[in-house]
Automatic annotation (TrEMBL):
Key words of the record: Flavoprotein, FMN, Oxidoreductase
Annotated FMN binding sites: 212, 234, 236, 267-271, 290-291
Catalytic reaction annotation: (S)-lactate + O2 = pyruvate + H2O2
FMN hydroxy acid dehydrogenase domain boundaries: 1-338
Molecular function as annotated in GO: FMN binding; oxidoreductase activity
Protein name in UniProt: L-lactate oxidase
Gene3D superfamilies: Aldolase class I
Family: Belongs to the FMN-dependent alpha-hydroxy acid dehydrogenase family.
SUPFAM superfamilies registered for this protein in UniProt: FMN-linked oxidoreductases (SSF51395)
Cofactors, names only: FMN
Binding, glyoxylate: 239
Amino acid sequence: MTYEEMLKNAKTCMGPYCKACPVCNGKACTNQMPGPGAKGTGTVAVRNYDKWQEIRVNMDTICENRPVDTTLELFGRSFRYPIFAAPIGALKLHYGDKYDDQAYNDILVSACADAGIAAFTGDGTNPDVMMAATNAIKVKDGQGIPTVKPWDINTLKEKLALIQASGSFAVAMDIDAAGLPFLQNLTPPAGSKSVEELTEIVKAAGVPFIVKGIMTPAGARKAKSAGASAIVVSNHGGRVLDQCPATAEVLEEIVKAAGHEMKILVDGGIRSGVDIFKALALGADGVLIGRPYVTAVYGGGAEGVEVYTRKLAAELRDTMAMCGAHSLAEISHDMVRV
């Protein structure tokens, strides 16, 4: 299967909202929710993509000619590439009837592990979603990252018990999901967490804890204070707050605020291996990619995931070689022009 064949297949089965565009840039689905679009004016998803394109890469091939190593070490595990599939939820609502959350996560977790990367899995009001996701991760020797919503502490402890039983090497919370309608007005309350509340949750997790949804230096410092091992610079694809800056606009200042004590991941509009290179040059350790992996699963199942991952990896390797970086550690800020 080629990438083009995967896209063609996806167009036939992704429901009425997603167009399986050749480049997922947020323009065809602007202001379309349900669906893959963004909230309000719908411009945040578009801005996420556009701002990566404004960054240029600096070519320099006067360097040693040797193989490129894209390996990432994270929390004691080795990954073939610095790429993770982002958590996606409510698949039937947003992408049609072909897959529910459980079936999607089952395919994604296994296929990502086989491709040498890892998937973040989603969460939902149905307890079976987390149960199925953690089962899929357990089957793949813990090679996946369950992502919990910012529920009340008792609900979180129930979900963390499932996560610990899965053997997952890390756990995440998409704390910006506080802006999703289904989390609001719950009893007991769910949503935003204080540093003290987040500290309690991090301690209860028992594995490295990743806070997803950081968009300011202050947020990064608070996550670090709570004991997080990593953060994801993310605006939830523009789905929780209109008029946010793009992640590419805030990444550098957040990296400076976080220091070297935490790993820094970033998502939002990253669509190619060149974009991945840019993110690493600005200080990220790795990236998350969401909507295109949905397209990959719908268009080709496990093979679609492998095809898209291979495409990203080839683009990353080529960019590294043409900019004089032979390992991820050699990618530096002077290799991009902001």
